[in-house]
Amino acid sequence: MxxxxxxxxxxxxxxxxxxxxxxxxxxxxxGHEALSEASGENNYRDHMADQGSATFERxxxxxxxxxxxxxxxxxxxxxxxxxxxxxxxxxxCSQPISDSRLEAMPTANLCITCKAxxxxx
Length: 121
Ligand SMILES: [Zn+2]
Prior knowledge:
Layout: H1 3-41, H2 48-84, H3 99-104, H4 112-120
Bound molecules: zinc ion.
């Protein structure tokens, strides 16, 4: 693929990696705070409604947490593919992934055809 496009995408990925690492650190910090708040809440059995919403919020946090970690893993894999020179090659059919697809979705590891086939399964 075009080296200029690849180095631009690499910059994008590195910026994204940095952003996600900050986000994970933030979530971990908030997670610890939520845990200590939760243990305090157990003393107040009257506040069942509050506890319910707190549990709900923690579940939302966990989903967010998983999404951020998954995104971080994707970005790391994409950067590793740039390093080993396999970036921009479909992992399934080994055909080049189009530059426009990679620019729109820098972590793409499948070409549009294989991605569509995978989603259709
Ligand atoms: Zn493919």
